[in-house]
Amino acid sequence: MSQMQIQQLMRPHLITPETYATAVSPDEMAAKAGVSPEMIIRVNQNENPFGADPDIAASLNDIPLHLYPDAGQVKIRTSLSQYTGHPTEQIMAGAGADEMIDLLMRLFVAPGERVLDCKPTFGMYHFCARVADAEVVSIQRDDTFDVDVEAVAREDDERTKIVFLASPNNPTGNILTEEQTRDLLKLGMVIVVDETYFEFSGQTVAHLIPEFENLVVLRSFSKWAGIAGLRVGYMIASTEIISRLMDIKNPYNVNIAAEAALLATMEHRAKLLGKVTILLEQRKRMEKAFDAMDRVSYVPSYGNYLLTRFDDHLAIDLYEALVKKGIFVRPFSDPRLTHDLRISVGTPDQTTRVLEAISELI
Ligand SMILES: Cc1ncc(COP(=O)(O)O)c(C=O)c1O
Fold this sequence. Notes:
Blueprint: H1 3-9, H2 26-33, E1 41-42, H3 54-58, H4 74-84, E2 91-94, H5 96-108, E3 114-119, H6 124-131, E4 135-140, H7 149-154, E5 160-166, H8 178-185, E6 190-194, H9 198-201, E7 215-220, E8 233-237, H10 239-248, H11 256-267, H12 269-291, E9 296-298, E10 305-310, H13 315-324, E11 327-328, E12 340-344, H14 348-361
Parallel strand pairs: 1-11, 3-4, 3-5, 5-6, 6-7
Antiparallel strand pairs: 2-8, 7-8, 9-10, 10-12
The structure holds pyridoxal-5'-phosphate.
């Protein structure tokens, strides 16, 4: 069978390549920078720079790898219920917040229906919507990257099912207020508030769930808990939404190592939240350093990253120059962000190196 023939069997909307742009691997980074992998500073994916906690790593010893995990997620949901204060039947876990986004498409969005997001924002909403053969409408955020609630309301119609809003937003770091959330919820579409950076922001709208059946809150263990590689995220939503999603998820979507790490994270959470405090202090340090630099500014951030604007430099040039020093930050193709780099907060030592490198370059 030729390539043409096999493509005729595929779903037409998936034939044009449009791969999700993930960051380069550590080995590629080292090769690109021309330094050894240990010298690389990865401040491009908002990961936890302290690495996995030893107690969480230890929880992975002696897990029964030959057994399937619990499809009903009983221990996980009980533990998350204790952590969040929401009932178990309003919580479910998955392979990162990413899987939750994909599952929401399965439940709510038929081919040709519409999904909204507010640009610039996290790319997975668009990615999963495209795979679901939905139409994605991206509404521009305003000058301060705030959500334009009226513009979202203007797009509300019968074909429009979900609005995805990250809070704190990635890459801008600002949050959606409770008032904005309430106004959006009243429109009647499913409003997904992605609180992947909740432990950094301390801000949530999850308490509105009993009042609004169309509110979905996403959270993640990738950033604060330092287990991005294990893929652990969860959702809080009405019992109706969660029970339907539990029905249609892959039965074993949280693998047994991820389950062990999630439970260990909950047990050792005080220690991990202490690391969050250190990272927030480092973000303050970065802010102060940027305040002192000429023609450099940043969006006030509630996350573990700063979208930083360099008026006199193209972001891509600075990115390349930082790569040569072994430092990886995140540039964007969005035309509004040609002078902006998202810089994740690193360890105190990494912050020192990042700030020194930037001051040398500008
Ligand atoms: C806003 C937002 N949502 C979701 C994710 C993905 O989280 P996870 O690793 O839990 O899939 C990210 C990761 O960068 C993110 O920034």
